[in-house]
Amino acid sequence: MAPRLTVIGTGYLGATHAACMAKLGFEVLGVDVDPEKVATLQAGRLPFHEPDLADLLAEQVATGRLRFTTSIEEAATFGDVHFVCVGTPQRKGELAADLTHVDAAVDGLAAHVDRPCLIVGKSTVPVGTAARLAERLTDRAPDVELAWNPEFLREGHAVEDTLRPDRLVFGVRSATAEAMLREVYADLLDAGVPAIVTDFATAELVKVSANAFLATKISFINAMAEVCEAAGADVTQLGSALALDPRIGGRFLHAGLGFGGGCLPKDIRAFMARAGELGVDQALSFLREVDAINMRRRARMVDLAREQLGGSFIGKRVAVFGAAFKPHSDDIRDSPALTVAATIQLQGAQVTVHDPVANDNARKLHPGLGYEDTPELAADRAHLVLHLTEWPQFQALDPAELGEIVAERRIVDGRNALDPARWRAAGWTYRALGRP
Ligand code: NAD
């Protein structure tokens, strides 16, 4: 009989994983400590925005294969394989990751399991966490095995990435654990997805080093943008030329406002903190610079916006296009767009934000900013428009029509995603990071 699966923590990662595992034919029980989230999911509705996931969730809940509960006890007795997908946020006032949710999920399962089973960690954790948890399980629930199977999905492409990932990484200590993971992922493996079978520590490190590499690539091109600004060069042309070198490649090489979200910033910080604990902090000291370059882009954006307004935000209306940390998501965790919007408001501007899906989340975090349902309403009589999250609909805007609405035709493109020629042809002053 097919193993029964549980997913502990049904946020961006867990809700996606649960729905996709049900799609693969498994019976899946999702567990979360947030009763409102559980009620919404159990009603077949998605509590956040993720393309294709709402339909998949509704479809799978309707089959009866996918259910949700707040009871870890129910999950412990239901499942043969338990995927731990809880959050690992940055600890308050520190660089390190907060592992209390991971520990609580594993302890909760250990307290209630009544037969041999496999706990599979998917949350992003500091190297050494799985070994520590395995030891904890030896004392509390000796029949429970642990595996680490880090997750690489991208918000905005989560369903596709879960059903057709680039690779699967299995950190295991026994052939039984590997065999169980191969059974759960059989369809993906049959379709040719490569699996790397390794130890706990390597599996944990694959995830954090992948994020460190991607963050470094983004900060590299943003450092080049700083140099381009000083030298009068154009970082978009520089990036296009670099991208033609197959050793470099063009992905994650777009200069702009930098990275944010619930993963890259906290993951590189937790990685530095863990390296320090392991006595190899020098190996990752470059990540401090990667982080600093990234945060400097937000400050530079604020400065560039102020320059466009003649040196002061006082009494100016600024329209901000975008609030999510990236397009196709409503995730506003550590969003560069919102950091810039809130800073500008603090410096005296009246800021009105429009995001296609993230307005509600943004309003909860920054109730003092204005929010509008369309870019046109946000831009009404604005002295400056800032393009801060590269939703395709912003690229499709007609600069001439928008020009009729604003008080001044000035735009700063924080994502180097708009066509400067089109905006300039319609009478706009177009500025962007890293180019003249
Ligand atoms: P999230 O905050 O959206 O979801 C975490 C969920 O866990 C929340 O719903 C929370 O209520 C729940 N939770 C907390 N403690 C719990 C407990 N003891 N029992 C049951 N539920 C509990 O976070 P997320 O973005 O889904 O990330 C989860 C993990 O996955 C993190 O470690 C993250 O780094 C990693 N990850 C995320 C992504 C992504 O794109 N979001 C991609 C890869 C890896």
Write a concise synopsis of the structure shown:
With 436 residues, the chain is an alpha/beta fold. Helices cover 46% and strands 13% of the residues. It has a six-stranded parallel beta sheet, sandwiched between helices.
Overview of this protein structure:
- The protein is of the alpha/beta class and 436 residues long.
- The chain folds into three domains: 5-198, Rossmann fold (3-Layer(aba) Sandwich), CATH 3.40.50; 208-291, Orthogonal Bundle (N-(1-d-carboxylethyl)-l-norvaline Dehydrogenase, domain 2); 297-432, Rossmann fold (3-Layer(aba) Sandwich).
- The chain is built from 19 helices and 14 strands.
- It has helices at residues 12-23, 35-42, 53-63, 72-78, 100-112, 129-140, 158-163, 175-184, 186-190, 200-231, 235-243, 264-277, 285-308, 336-346, 359-365, 375-378, 392-395, 399-405, 420-425; strands spanning 5-8, 28-31, 66-69, 81-84, 117-121, 144-148, 168-171, 195-198, 317-321, 350-354, 370-371, 384-387, 410-413, 429-432.
- The protein has a six-stranded parallel β-sheet, sandwiched between helices. A six-stranded parallel β-sheet has the order 11-10-9-12-13-14. Strands 7-8 form a two-stranded parallel ribbon.
- The longest helix has 32 residues, at 200-231.
- The N and C termini lie far apart (64 Å).
- The site of nicotinamide-adenine-dinucleotide has 26 residues, from helix 1 and helix 5.
